[in-house]
Design brief:
It is built from 17 helices and 16 strands. A hairpin with a 4-residue loop joins strand 15 and strand 16. It is α+β, with helices and mostly antiparallel strands. A 7-stranded antiparallel sheet has the order 13-10-12-11-15-16-14, sandwiched between helices. 32% of the residues lie in helices and 19% in strands. Helix 9 runs antiparallel to helix 11. It is globular, with a radius of gyration of 23 Å. Bound molecules: flavin-adenine dinucleotide, (2S)-2-hydroxypentanedioic acid (S2G) and zinc ion (ZN). (2S)-2-hydroxypentanedioic acid binds next to strand 14 and strand 16. The site of zinc ion (ZN) has 5 residues, from strand 15.
Length: 483
């Protein structure tokens, strides 16, 4: 990719304008005149350390009006902009490709309102997900999204990436839970659609364009979202199983027997758990080693009722030998420890150097077949092994079984062209043949932009580009990415 010459280089005059506009030193990290108030590098590098930009200017607005003025200035001066939240995205969407300005939302972190009756929560985009969820827990409510990055990611970034995560099985997608959005278009227009209505059938539902828009048509500055009651009774169980067929049987049984209290069903293969044990130097919850593990969570209103249901379910799946061994958390600490065996996987896989990540929607009955076929292919090409002479440590599969969302991850000791060639386009063609998605929840960013055609038709891509051109005619929003 080449830097697009239509974008201006950032000059000291631009920096002065931003400083005047923002009216505070701490809101501008000036890498142009070299007297940056803080290190600019963290804003250039993504969470995986796979993508690195070269911005010379980070601006941190404190209000929607300031975002509007910044965007209008950038649009009038042809300055490219990357909106940035917690910078935990996994497709390189949150860091510049070249010297795009980073517009970081961390100073816009006010919780605006919460209605105890309706459960409607309104907050700035820069509120950290865990902060939002803790605030709601005090009010006996829950943010209808949870993911491993909760300690850093912003709710604005979650909406911009339409993040799926660990609670989607129970609470659905952000496309359904987000009621309203306040955003700023490149020309400074403030999209004032911060509705608190559960139902409003008056015209096109434009907020949906920003949910999953990945910062390519506007900057989300606030969201309003419907938050469910928090269930007082939460149980977590961790199982070992002997085959993927048994995993599917366990999933079906869980839906039948636990039904309305089932709030998560996650898959981790034995290899991912073995690597977690090595990287985190920790024991696994079960004595034996199994080729598959599941983590399930129930959330309900009556602890006795739920425990009885869960125990009946457990006796059944153990009795039928669907599950070989299992453990139920006895308290919150144990529940968190069981969850850590699932949430600790992404970080674990970066332990040896790099990871080739594939976040795929595939037909659930074939979900693990791709992992086996990928491992066979890389092994046949002599790329997988236990010592440093091999680039690939292993090929693992885990993810949101309930959403038929596989995270196929290939942890490596180093990024290696031969590995990339073996994986791409093999993985994408495999998914396309089964009408799956080459990016189930992480979005496109820069990593998956070139592969959108495996999951979207030419027509759909053309229609999306028309919307992009309508809202961002100068193309200054998050260029080089997405579509
Ligand atoms: P950033 O990473 O800063 O930005 C992400 C994208 O959104 C970029 O394109 C950026 O330009 C844009 N953006 C950010 N803020 C705004 C805004 N206010 N307005 C407009 N555009 C904006 N994802 C899942 O879906 N499911 C998971 O289970 C999951 N688990 C994860 C576990 C770990 C350990 C990590 C590190 C990540 C995980 N993710 C998961 C990725 C997840 O999508 C991101 O973590 C998160 O949703 C992005 O939020 P953020 O604030 O970090 O945004
Ligand atoms: C998850 C996180 C990132 C990865 O853990 O559910 O979305 O490693 C993933 O794929
Ligand atoms: Zn995920």
């Amino acid at each position: 990719i080449k830097r697009d010459p239509k974008f201006s280089e950032i000059t000291p005059e631009h920096v002065k304008s931003f400083k005047d506009l923002l009216g505070s030193e701490s809101a501008v990290i000036d890498g142009v005149s070299q007297d940056a108030t803080e290190d600019i590098e963290p804003f250039n590098a993504d969470w995986m350390r796979k993508y690195r930009g070269h911005t010379k200017l980070v601006v941190k607005p404190g209000s929607t009006e300031q975002v509007s003025k910044i965007m209008k200035y950038c649009n009038d001066n042809m300055l490219a902009v990357v909106p940035q939240g917690g910078n935990t995205g996994l497709v390189g969407g949150s860091v510049p490709v070249f010297d795009e300005i980073v517009l970081n939302l961390s100073r816009m972190n006010k919780i605006r309102s919460f209605d105890e009756v309706s459960g409607i929560f309104v907050a700035d985009a820069g509120v950290i997900l865990e902060v939002a969820d803790n605030f709601l827990a005090e009010k006996k409510h829950i943010f209808p999204l949870d993911l491993g990055a909760k300690g850093s990611c912003h709710i604005g970034g979650n909406v911009a990436t339409n993040a799926g995560g660990l609670r989607l099985l129970r609470y659905g997608s952000l496309h359904g839970n987000v009621l309203g959005i306040e955003a700023v278009l490149p020309d400074g227009t403030i999209v004032d659609d911060l509705s608190k209505l559960r139902k409003n059938n008056t015209g096109y539902d434009l907020k949906q364009l920003f949910i999953g828009g990945e910062g390519t048509i506007g900057v989300i500055t606030a969201i309003s979202i419907l938050c469910p009651q928090r269930s007082p009774a939460v149980n977590v169980a961790y199982f070992g199983l002997e085959s993927f067929e048994k995993v599917q049987m366990a999933f079906r049984e869980a839906k039948n027997q636990l039904s309305e209290i089932l709030s998560a069903f996650e898959l981790m293969d034995g290899r991912s758990q073995k690597l977690l044990k090595i990287a985190k130097e920790r024991k696994l919850p079960l004595e034996g080693e199994y080729p598959f593990y599941c983590l399930i969570e129930t959330s309900g209103s009556n602890s006795d009722h739920d425990s009885e249901k869960l125990n009946t379910f457990l006796e059944h799946v153990m009795g039928e030998e669907i599950v070989k061994d299992g453990v139920v958390g006895q308290d919150q600490t144990q529940n968190l420890d069981l969850w850590a065996c699932r949430e600790g996987v992404p970080e674990t896989l970066g332990h040896w150097g790099g990871v080739y990540k594939y976040d795929l929607s595939v037909p659930i009955e074939e979900l693990y077949q791709l992992v086996d076929e990928t491992r066979e292919k890389l092994t046949a090409e002599g790329l997988v092994g236990d010592d440093d002479s091999y680039p690939v440590v292993d090929v693992v599969g885990y993810g949101h079984m309930g959403d038929a969302n596989l995270h196929l991850n290939v942890p490596t000791r180093r990024f290696d062209k031969a590995v990339e060639k073996a994986l791409e386009p093999f993985v994408y063609e495999w998914v396309q043949k089964r009408n799956g998605s080459i990016s189930a929840e992480h979005g496109l960013g820069i990593a998956k932009k070139a592969f959108i055609g495996y999951s979207r038709s030419e027509t759909m891509i053309r229609l999306m580009k028309q919307i992009k051109d309508l809202y961002d005619p100068n193309g200054i929003m998050n260029p080089y990415k997405y579509i």
